Amino acid sequence: MQKLSSALTRIGAVIAAILLWWLSTDVWSADNPILGSMSPVDAIDALGRQIIGGTLVDTVAVSLGRLLGGLLIATVIGVLLGLAIGSRKRIDEATSVIIQFLRMVSPLAWTPIAIVLFGIGSPPVVFLIAIAAVWPVTMNTVAGVRSLDPNWALLAKSLGATPIEILKTIVIPGIRPHVLTGIRLALGVAWIVIVPAEMLGVDSGLGYQILNARDQLDYALLAAIMLVIGIIGYSLDWLTQWGFKRWVEATA
Fold this sequence. Notes:
The chain has helices at about 1-25, 40-55, 55-85, 90-105, 110-120, 120-145, 150-160, 165-195, 205-215, 220-250. The protein has 10 helices and no strands. The longest helix is centred in the last third of the chain and has 35 residues, at about 165-195. By secondary structure, it is mainly α.
């Protein structure tokens, strides 16, 4: 009964949001040439045209490919860096100031450097995504390593375990929840960054479609792409949370 009530509450909230969207565009801003063209009806119509024409599938596939590439790079670097910082105090002391500094720099501030290094196209976008996503993975990995009971490692050593065996049987299983949380946070950050990143020097992807719709004064399409970005972002977060939870339960 409680689950049903929760589901009905969420559905009601979504309906209310759509109603507010409709009122804001079709009623209160009907005379506005921009907002008046971004109503739910117009957005759905534009979205249907994109789906029928096959453009939307290609656009989403390109953005997801860039997202996956950047997130994979960030995960590998973040986990390795987090393991090093979390397990070695000297490394932590040597890198703490630098890492805190780099974390505070907006990923988009790296855009000129990315373009100089990688040119135009997908590589600079993947680079910006990796820069944005690496820090949540790193910091959560560090937190995971520091949360481990040091007695576990001492016990394993006393039983003759090698450093690799300790890493495989104690460290990695122990930090897994923290790493998964870091990846989930990184995914959210990366999805936010990918849209402005795709507005720079590429001719495909959701960010590019936002600019293209603006240049064509097709504000219904702009609203449709914004809707798609929100739906995909929500779906990715939900699927990640659900998948990680099932994986942890299955391997516990």
